[in-house]
Specification:
The chain is 49% helix and 8% strand. The protein has helices at 21-25, 28-37, 54-62, 89-96, 106-117, 120-143, 149-154, 156-166, 176-184, 193-219, 225-231, 241-271, 274-282, 287-297, 329-332, 367-384, and strands at residues 41-43, 48-51, 66-67, 146-148, 303-308, 312-314, 317-319, 324-328, 389-390, 409-411. α6 runs antiparallel to α8 (156-166) and α12 (241-271) packs parallel to α16 (367-384).
């Protein structure tokens, strides 16, 4: 099939429409059409190449000819890009020093140092705390007779866990969610100036807060992750203050936003598949594979963008240096070339190499913690609210890249 960088791929106008609420509510039929139509599609509104197939998405996540940034090799001008407005600098400083938007050698160094603080043992040590918090939230939720599952359980759990991990006092924790939401608004396609303004303000406020917290921990180290990041050392190398701040913000944004949406998207999926929900209620032993299947079936991160640093070819289409590819995680996770009956919810699916947590050097560092949180909240609700039922059909938030529900009202 022919692709035209001067305009949208022929025949696909209106198929991919990430600003449409109906598309956001159910993008999967459009993904099927994209997969059938080819392996790379030019999307003029965001000036990106859409990549819908599992094999291509998986390969490009690992391909070192692409990067989350290009600034380790090129200036904005050399790469044919316009520098961001000067007034956006606080957001880009914060975002640009985080693991997710760095490439080697900085990414290698920082991930190695962060991994010394954020160890499997650290995560495992948190597991009892995660389960306790989940049980307490669900117990209160049941005592109230239900309500908004998002606001009462899905959202407070990861915020409390990450705050506990970072050593943020309980009185300050209500600040975290608004900061996270405002910063993450910049990850949507073509964000507007008001979105940027909120993200800049949140970046300044959150950075200032963490700078004070880091100063306190330097004076009086504790058992928290901030103290561990300060202490992380290899061959005399340490994290800079900005790298620590950006790491903490990334842990909140990536871990929190994804876990909240995975929880409510997952329950909404189960309510729409009552037979599978009945299976899970009858056999809690399915929980481990069920969590993985829910992550595959309706991933909270629909798209992951990367810059093309050297020319690549996808399905006979040459994508030149300076381009941006949009790897469609939601489409890849429903690709029949990799998953048997991909549009069927199979809670016992064992062959399930979904890419919800990414792949390659940017594979999600917090994936083990996210799995513990999801198992804890789903498990607590299955045990304590076995008859939980939907009150009304929820609405989707307008965002497409980080995709989630406005609320999820239930009775218990």
């Amino acid at each position: 099939m022919l692709h035209f960088p001067g305009g949208q791929t022929p025949g696909l106008t209106g198929v991919f429409d990430p600003w449409s609420r109906s598309f956001v509510a159910d993008p999967y039929p459009a993904y099927a059409r994209l997969r059938e139509a080819g392996r790379a599609h030019w999307f003029e509104p965001s000036r990106q190449w859409l990549i819908p197939h599992y094999a291509d998405v998986s390969a490009l996540l690992r391909d070192r000819r692409l990067g989350r940034t290009y600034l380790h090799r090129f200036t904005h001008e050399e790469f044919g890009r316009t520098p961001p407005p000067e007034e956006h600098e606080p957001f880009h400083t914060l975002n640009g020093h985080g693991l997710l938007d760095l490439e080697a050698p900085d990414h290698t160094r920082i991930r190695r140092l962060v991994s010394k603080a954020f160890t499997p043992r650290t995560v495992e040590r948190l597991a009892p705390t995660v389960r306790r918090i989940a049980d307490e939230l669900v117990e209160s939720f049941v005592a109230e007779g239900g309500g908004d599952l998002l606001a009462a359980v899905a959202e407070p759990l990861p915020v409390a866990v990450i705050a506990e991990m970072l050593g943020i006092p309980e009185s300050d924790r209500p600040l975290l969610r608004p900061w996270s939401a405002d910063i993450c608004g910049m990850f949507e396609l073509n964000p507007g100036e008001e979105t940027a303004r909120r993200a800049v303000r949140a970046s300044i406020e959150f950075s200032s807060y963490l700078r004070e917290l880091i100063a306190e921990r330097r004076e009086a180290p504790g058992e928290d992750l901030v103290s561990a990041l300060i202490a992380a050392n290899e061959g005399g190398e340490r994290l800079s203050e900005q790298e620590m701040i950006s790491t903490c913000v990334l842990l909140l944004n990536a871990g929190h936003e994804a876990t909240v949406n995975s929880t409510v998207n997952g329950w909404w999926t189960l309510f729409r598949h009552p037979e599978r929900l009945a299976d899970l209620r009858a056999d809690h032993g399915l929980l481990s594979t069920a969590v993985e299947e829910l992550l595959r079936f309706d991933t909270p991160l629909q798209m992951f963008e990367r810059w093309v640093l050297d020319d690549i070819e996808v399905g006979g289409t040459v994508i030149p240096r300076g381009s941006e590819v949009a790897l469609l995680f939601g489409s890849a996770n429903r690709d029949p070339a990799r998953f048997t009956d991909p549009d069927t919810l199979d809670l016992s699916r064992t062959d399930n190499p979904h890419i919800t947590f990414g792949a390659g050097i940017h594979y999600c560092l917090g994936a083990p913690l996210a799995r513990i949180e999801l198992a804890a909240s789903f498990g607590a609700l299955l045990r304590r609210a076995p008859g939980m039922r939907l009150v009304r059909e929820p609405c989707w938030k307008p965002g497409y890249v980080i995709r989630g529900l406005e609320d999820l009202l239930v009775e218990v």
